[in-house]
Every structure is written in structure tokens, then in C-alpha cells.
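User: C-alpha cells for DNA polymerase epsilon subunit B N-terminal domain-containing protein, please.
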Amino acid sequence: MSSDSSVKSNVLAAFRLRGLDLKFDASQFLVELASNVPSASLTSWLDQLIDLLTKRNLSSSIVEKTLLTNVVQELRAQLSNDSHEALFSVLNAFSIPKFIYSRSMKKFIEKDIDNDLFGTARTRSEVFWERYDLLLQRTLRHDVFSQVNLASGSSNTGQKYQKIAAHLLNLSIYISCK
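Assistant: Done. Predicted C-alpha cells:
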């Protein structure tokens, strides 16, 4: 009987930790199910169950047995579908959309790609230009390289840029010493 009480305390503690309470019939139902689960994997099973439960739009923090039975069935379906086949999947490279950065629109747009495996010399140069545009865009948006907004008047930003400049100066000295 002590094992049932420890299982019950673990179940109730896991639900209370997430801010949920169980009705009496729901707690009895869950304790019966949890007693069949090995003690080593009980916490992970409860975490998966509570994660599925919180993904649903709950009207209150009190969980009823009907909702709990639906979630348990969903969890069983997920656990039965988990197999080694799902660990490895092959994606078609031509079915994945490709995005390039447009300087004029200042956002990423989808690019139509040809299904040709061997491109022309022009497409090879486009690949390098697109990589350059992507790196340039990321660099310009980085805090270190962004322009200082003087209208904000924050003294905190000045200190931040002094630290960055000092870091860059130390880095350049370190590189020149090599």
C-alpha cells in the first residue's frame, strides 16, 4: 500500500507543480495507470502526460476524468507510433523552399529554384552572391555593427559600445601580435 501512496503523492505533486489539480475520480484513475508504469520512467511519463494536457485549452485548473482519459489515449497513441523509423527521415532537396534576402524590400523572399541538379556557371555565381548578401545582412543587424541612435539619449548604450570597441581593439591587438 505504501507504493500506491508514493505513486499517488508523485502524481499529485507533478500536477500541482504545473498548477493543476485533479478531481477525485481522475486522481484514482491516474494512480491506477501510474502503478503499471515502471518507477524509473514514471516522472517522464507524467511530464509527457501533463505536456499534452497543457497543450489543450483548459477552462479551469481542475482536471476531470473524461479529459484525462482522452489525453491518456492520445499519449498511448503517440508512444505506440514512436519507432526507430521516425528518428531518421530523408527530405527531398528540391521540395524545400529556398529563401534569399532582398536588399530592396529588406526581407527574405521565396526564390523559385530549378530542379536541375547541375547548374550553370551563372547559378554558381548567384549562390555566392546570395551567401554574401545573407552574411552582410546578418552583420549589419548585429549589435556591434548597428548604427548608434543618438535620439534615445540612453547613457547605457554608450557604455555598451565602449565595451564592444574595447573588445574589438583587444582582439585586433591580439591578432597583430601573432
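User: Anything notable?

Assistant: The mean pLDDT is 78.
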